[in-house]
Structure to design on (485 residues):
């Protein structure tokens, strides 16, 4: 097996276990490359990639852009705030116009769930979903899986707790699919208002006591409270959330074992996680960011190499 | 498939011995590093590296290089599974001895030289191969040290089969029927 089963990466849900394993093993090669004295390979020199960001992003956009530059691809950047989308152009028209300029691959973030899937049915280029609303964020899940594997070994049988705002999190959904496919056990933890009702049908456990979840898990992936997606109040105050669900040093010291702490960023320090935990030796938050570049290089490399 | 043995284990052993001594004769040992080309050149490189160290009683840095991301046939239907690149030293101002098992079109060696430049600017790169298929070159690349030269017509493949037991190593012609 040396090819992906699909010409798009829309969501982890549609990737096979072989696809995920292939991406993870290819990532190791790229991680070696980005740590070389000269961190660049000429592999994608005849590929043009358009980064279409219809929603704000720092980490993901920069990570994709660095990954593209390390692979020698040509890049076109687009953000909706400074474009004709403001004049009323549809998504399909925007993308088709960009593709007419001979672009091979699209990396897209969009506030609407399913936007990447919609495009993939209508256009010819490879599409990578860099986050579609509250649906999926596949490259984040892949880099999380890679970072866990790098820290504590194969995911089979490992216990991962995802703590926080599950309802609004595309990272949570992609992580659930990815971790389950790799054989890990997953528990979600957060206030009942932030956990979707029927989520246990995906084969995950749900807990509402954060101390129990921490005691159970090997790895805690702490999610951000996404205030920008919350139109109604889901909990009384940030202070109360931090009190009941925030990860702090006292909570971790109560455990009789050491666990790995992850966070996909951006961090609300003092809300879902305190600074002394986020910056501690247990935290692999910055490894996640480094691995993100290698994961995105692997995904783009494998997609570009995909033969029809 | 029908195979014809071209070199047996004993002959390969003799050739490796000769190549090792030729390298010692002509290279500056203060400065040499040995790098094998993945996947199959590494096996030959390990043997030559070991022999040269034995003969000269020196320690020589050894690395492996994978050419996948530097190849010119990306997106042309080849399956491209990358292998490990392991060079934990700088090759800046070193004499690099690049080792592969079979030199055919020269494209792998071109890619390997390209990949090597990510680790610094070597003073010199020299090429050692066990088998040189001299009439099949597509690029102007010639080896500095050659085990055997063979002249083959296209549908014939030359394959070096390494085994755990040195006597079972062999170089074979594989005819594709």
């Amino acid at each position: 097996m040396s090819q992906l089963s699909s010409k798009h990466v829309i969501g982890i849900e549609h990737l096979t276990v072989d696809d995920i394993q292939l991406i993870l093993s290819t990532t190791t090669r790229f991680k070696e490359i980005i740590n070389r004295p000269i961190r660049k390979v000429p592999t994608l020199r005849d590929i043009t990639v358009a980064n279409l960001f219809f929603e704000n992003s720092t980490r993901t956009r920069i990570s994709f852009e660095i990954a593209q530059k390390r692979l020698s691809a040509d890049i076109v950047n687009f953000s909706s705030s400074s474009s004709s989308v403001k004049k009323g152009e549809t998504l399909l028209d925007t993308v088709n116009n960009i593709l007419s300029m001979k672009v091979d691959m699209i990396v897209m973030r969009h506030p609407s769930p399913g936007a990447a899937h919609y495009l993939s049915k209508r256009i010819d280029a490879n599409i990578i979903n860099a986050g579609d609303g509250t649906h999926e964020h596949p490259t984040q899940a892949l880099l999380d899986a890679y970072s866990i594997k790098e820290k504590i070994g194969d995911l089979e049988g490992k216990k991962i707790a995802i703590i926080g705002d599950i309802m609004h999190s595309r990272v949570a959904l992609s992580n659930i699919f990815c971790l389950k496919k790799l054989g890990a056990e997953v528990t979600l933890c957060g206030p009942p208002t932030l956990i979707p009702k029927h989520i246990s049908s995906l084969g995950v456990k749900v807990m509402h006591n954060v101390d129990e979840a921490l005691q159970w898990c090997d790895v805690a992936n702490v999610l951000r409270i996404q205030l920008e997606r919350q139109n109604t109040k889901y909990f009384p105050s940030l202070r109360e959330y931090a009190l009941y669900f925030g990860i702090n040093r006292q909570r971790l010291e109560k455990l009789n074992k050491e666990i790995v702490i992850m966070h996909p960023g951006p961090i609300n320090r003092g809300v879902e996680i305190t600074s002394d935990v986020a910056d501690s030796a247990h935290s692999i938050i910055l490894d996640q960011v480094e691995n993100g570049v290698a994961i995105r290089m692997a995904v783009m490399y494998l997609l570009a190499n995909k033969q029809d | 498939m029908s195979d014809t043995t071209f070199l047996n284990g004993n002959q390969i052993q003799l050739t490796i011995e000769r190549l090792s001594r030729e390298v010692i004769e002509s290279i500056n040992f203060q400065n040499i590093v040995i790098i094998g080309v993945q996947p199959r050149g590494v096996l030959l490189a390990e043997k030559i590296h070991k022999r040269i160290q034995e003969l000269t009683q020196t320690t020589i840095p050894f690395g492996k290089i994978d050419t996948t991301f530097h190849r010119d046939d990306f997106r042309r239907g080849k399956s491209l599974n990358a292998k490990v690149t392991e060079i934990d030293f700088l090759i800046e101002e070193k004499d690099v001895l690049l080792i592969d098992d079979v030199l055919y079109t020269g494209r792998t060696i071109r890619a390997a030289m390209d990949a090597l430049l990510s680790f610094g600017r070597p003073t010199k790169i020299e090429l050692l191969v066990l088998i040189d298929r001299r009439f099949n070159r597509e690029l102007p690349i010639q080896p500095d040290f050659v085990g055997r030269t063979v002249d083959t017509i296209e549908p014939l493949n030359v394959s070096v089969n390494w085994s755990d037991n040195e006597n079972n190593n062999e170089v074979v012609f594989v005819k594709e029927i």
Observations:
- The radius of gyration of chain A is 19 Å.
- Chain A touches chain B through 19 residues (CB under 8 Å).
